[in-house]
Design brief:
alpha+beta; 22 helices; 917 residues; ten-stranded antiparallel beta sheet; binds 1-O-phosphono-alpha-D-glucopyranose
Length: 917
């Protein structure tokens, strides 16, 4: 058995090649489940593998190629291919799927080599077969224009000493319909296909889109077009699967190629109502040694035939493809450049560019449409939308979805803060008067759907995210007034609604979310888990489940919301605000004594729900801010004390940590049971992050996490310990194999939030350890088996899964910029509070960062010549555009630069040098 057939070598199989994010991967086709995303902002969504597999679509209902999930990537039948019939030799697949080449590669790894080079956002495979004397270079990208087209440029080079005569055939199976039709009338829907043999390729225009709830006339055109380097059209096509693979044939040995058949004449009977394939036959030609033949292929989805044909004019030559590729690179580079970091670890800086891209990818793809994400129909969930908002705010990506019109290239770039308020206001319109919210956000602004698959569910954490994002927005921009803006509520279609009650302030929306949560108490005094919290997998404890973790977050939010209202009084002089009369039910009428008994709390919530179920009267009450602040503080403190004092566990072994949950039998989930430790990371992260845990509790919870959740070999922190065969009744997560997904995986989102929480609380060394553990897992390339970036999780083997579309990327960027680099807004002013460790500085003791803030591009340099760790340095001096900025008399580790000072600077780029010593 040859070595390395299943495993790449121990050394990294990919490496960065230059200053930016471009990397080269050696033999990536030996790694299963590997894929790379390609897209543009108008939403042509592709995935591509080292063997050209992956699919091309615009949404759930428009797939050009067969929809694939990760397990389909081993098959070649559905992917792009490019066949070469070589005179005197056997046919060769440029995708690496021809039988002989595979066998040869199996016997001798070097017989055929494959490498992938990729950057934002393009993918190039180079495959070389010395025996056959051919090298093929396949470059795929989606141009950064408003065309729904993927370009595939093929360059075939004769690397032998003799002329080679070839007959190429591009082969892209064309599915041309909704992903639903994969199992819903796959055959019947092929009968709808109307196939046109265009001079330059194959067009499929189904007569209708099939949906038994109401068929619709279809006008969308699915196209595979191509030309040679001189613009010549293909000699013809094999437009149906039957004509291409032949009777009894397969996509791995299509008879059209293997028997070197001429393009067929097909009758209408043979052509229509068939499974289609964009099999484009190019002319037979001789390539001299060292010479190259090129083919441009356009794979797309168009509103009409004219648009599809127009692509040939725009992209139909190697020069035009090159220029589109250059534009594409410039476009994404500009998006990535708005945050740049130069630490002591160049690889980290380059890896970070991929992480920075990920929130953008999630904005474009939603939570679906890459091979690991074999669920969902596009759109994003409520909590993801808000959390991604954090990163988009930070990264200057402020346009509401759907993707905004593309900016002209070179146009100064976007600035954080612009247009965000519109995005936030728009999202607030998804909040219901009862404190819950619509859960799915459609692609148009203001388009909400009550829930996926029409299952009515409540995720009890949903209420916390809008304030977390809004608070960050207020700090970054100083726009406290957003709290007083009026926005509609979401009313379910079937419920009556009062026209008078359609709107309320953002503050009122936030109050409704937090107060309703406060009163939704479980038997132990924590907030009810309902149908799950952040952990979607805790979905089976509706009756008696409680989430201590999110009780802590609600506590922290209530207290910080009170803090923002303090600012409102102090900075804006606002003394009172109007609220919907019904909201008064949730406020304390008799001073700051609050109901503590869960029964009394639930009863009050019921009264409120009964009064708002059918709408509200429209009557307003005026509430003084002071009273409101006191109310929120009291409730926040009640919840905080509940978590801090009643959910803190001490094990006999001396360890101590927070209990995070109660199960559906109303039993405590965490602790030591029959000698087995049950602990969740979530249960620790949120009491720490919210500020509810005392410093001592933070220290001990971290130690317990190290002891019970940190994997000794891989270094990462797991989401929970193994609860064994009889886990507490909480949800589906515990039906997953241990180590996968929400059951004990190294779940990046929670790990990075753990780091964030520790940094926020000033536990810098600990935060750095957690943050680094995640980075290291991403960089253990031979274990993680993914391209650069952060995946949703690593399984028990350390393999990265669900790459690219994960909220952890947003939190990673947020943690890096606002906590580690300590660059963030405080009520609109700029705070610099670096929390750095020696290894993060370069050899010269410098670390540089570029971020947007207050309409300026900040170039911040931290200089720490003695490379002291956080705790041992203070800020010695600050230079602002070369001038020294006055520091407080006492030694300090943070400095605030007023927004007005920044705004008064004439230049757009602001240089700040901070000396630490
Ligand atoms: C995913 C979901 C997120 C959820 C988490 C845990 O995480 O998108 O909403 O909270 O699983 O169930 P992500 O893929 O964003 O890392």
């Amino acid at each position: 058995m040859p070595k390395r057939i299943n495993k790449p070598s121990k050394e990294s199989w990919w490496r960065f090649t230059g200053e930016d994010e471009v990397f080269v991967a050696r033999d990536p086709d030996r790694i299963s489940r590997l894929y790379f995303p390609l897209c543009n902002e108008v939403g042509l969504l592709s995935s591509i593998t080292p063997r050209l597999n992956g699919d091309i679509k615009t949404d759930q209902n428009h797939f050009l190629t067969l929809p694939v999930s990760a397990e389909d990537l081993h098959n070649t039948r559905s992917g792009r291919n490019f066949w070469i019939y070589i005179e005197g030799k056997e046919p060769w697949s440029a995708a690496g799927s021809s039988g002989t080449a595979l066998l040869e590669r199996y016997r001798s790894p070097r017989a055929e080599t494959c490498r992938v080079e990729a950057g934002a956002l393009w993918h190039r495979i180079t495959r070389e077969n010395r025996r056959l004397g051919l090298r093929v270079e396949l470059t795929n990208f989606v141009p950064a224009t408003d065309d729904w087209v993927e370009i595939m440029q093929v360059r075939l080079t004769n690397i032998s000493r003799r002329p080679i005569t070839i007959t190429p055939t591009a082969a892209i199976p064309m599915f041309g319909r909704s992903a639903d039709n994969l199992r819903d009338h796959r055959h019947v829907t092929s009968l709808l296909h109307r196939i046109t043999r265009h001079t330059y390729g194959v067009l499929v225009t189904p007569t209708m889109s099939f949906d038994e709830r109401g068929h619709k006339v279809n006008t969308t055109v699915y196209a595979v077009l191509g030309c040679e380097e001189n613009g010549d059209a293909p000699v013809g096509s094999f437009p149906t699967v039957a004509s291409f693979i032949g009777e009894g044939g397969t996509f791995d040995s299509p008879q059209a190629v293997f028997e070197d058949r001429d393009v067929p004449d097909l009758s209408e009977t043979e052509l229509q109502g068939r499974e289609a394939v964009g099999a484009l036959r190019f002319r037979r030609r001789k390539i001299l040694p060292g010479k190259t033949a090129s083919y441009s292929l356009l794979l797309g989805i168009a509103p009409d035939r004219k648009t599809a044909a127009g692509w040939l004019r725009t992209y139909g030559s190697p020069e035009k493809v090159d220029s589109a590729l250059t534009d594409n690179k410039t476009y994404w580079k500009e998006r990535l450049d708005c945050i740049q970091v130069r630490t002591g670890d160049k690889d980290f800086d380059r890896w970070l560019r991929w992480v920075r891209l990920q929130p953008l990818l999630r904005k474009i793809f939603g939570n679906s449409f890459l091979p690991d994400f074999d669920y969902g129909r596009g759109g994003r969930g409520w909590r993801d939308l808000w959390q991604d908002g954090l990163a988009l705010l930070l990264l200057g990506e402020n346009e509401p979805s759907p993707p905004a019109p593309l900016p002209t290239q070179g146009e100064g770039g976007r600035r954080p803060g612009e247009g965000v308020s519109a995005l936030l206001l728009n999202n607030f319109a998804g909040v219901r008067m009862n404190g819950t919210n619509a859960t799915i956000i459609g692609s148009a602004p203001g388009e909400f759907i009550a829930d996926r698959n029409n299952i009515s569910r409540t995720w009890m954490d949903h209420g916390v995210w809008p304030w977390i994002t809004t608070e960050f927005y207020i700090h970054q921009t100083g726009d406290l007034d957003i709290l007083l803006k009026e926005v509609p509520y979401f009313w379910d279609q079937d419920k009556a609604k009062s026209p008078l009650a359609e709107k309320g302030t953002v503050l009122e929306h936030l109050l409704v979310q937090h107060l309703a949560a406060y009163f939704n108490a479980g038997d132990h005094g924590n907030l009810r888990l309902e149908d799950a919290d952040w952990n979607d997998g805790l979905d089976m404890a509706h009756d008696h489940g409680e989430s201590v973790a999110f009780t802590a977050v609600f506590a922290g939010n209530l207290l910080r919301l009170a803090g923002a209202l303090d600012q409102m009084v102090a900075r804006r002089g606002v003394k009172e605000i109007p609220l919907a009369g019904e909201v008064e039910i949730l406020l304390e009428q008799r001073g700051p004594t609050v109901e503590l008994s869960p029964e009394a709390r639930r009863k009050r919530l019921k009264t409120y729900h009964d009064r708002t179920r059918e709408g509200v009267t429209g009557g307003k009450v005026i509430v003084t801010l002071r009273t409101l602040i006191e109310d929120l503080r009291t409730k926040g403190n009640v919840l905080a004390a509940q978590v801090r004092d009643r959910e803190w566990l001490s094990a006999a072994s001396g360890q101590a940590w927070f209990n995070g949950y109660y199960d559906n039998n109303s039993n405590r989930v965490e602790g030591v049971f029959d000698g087995d430790v049950r602990m969740t990371l979530t249960g620790q992260v949120f009491p720490i992050m919210s500020g509810v845990a005392t410093d001592d509790q933070v220290r001990l919870a971290f130690l317990a996490a190290k002891r019970f959740l940190q994997d000794k070999k891989l270094g990462g922190f797991r989401l929970n310990t193994d609860f064994g065969d009889t886990p507490p009744p909480l949800g589906r997560a515990f039906a997953f194999a241990y180590g996968e997904k929400e059951n004990g995986a190294f779940f990046s989102h929670m790990v990075v939030m753990f780091a964030n929480a520790l940094y926020q609380r000033g536990f810098v060394k600990e935060g750095f350890e957690v943050f680094s553990s995640l980075y290291r897992m991403c960089r253990q390339t031979d274990v993680a088996m993914i391209y650069p970036g952060v995946p949703e999780y690593f399984n028990g083997e350390g393999r990265g899964l669900y790459h690219y579309l994960t909220g952890s990327a947003s939190w990673l960027m947020l943690t890096l910029v606002t906590q580690i680099l300590g660059i963030r807004g405080v009520w609109g002013d700029l705070l610099l509070a670096p929390k750095l460790m020696p290894e993060q500085f370069g050899t010269n003791g410098q670390l540089e960062a570029e971020v947007g803030f207050a309409g300026k591009q900040l170039k911040i340099t931290y200089v720490n010549r003695g490379k002291k760790p956080f705790g041992q340095y203070h800020i010695e001096s600050v230079l602002l555009q070369g001038n020294s900025f006055a520091l407080p008399a006492d030694p300090t580790v943070q400095v605030v630069i007023p927004r007005t000072t920044l705004a008064a600077l004439p230049d757009n780029t602001v240089h700040i040098t901070v000396a630490l010593s």
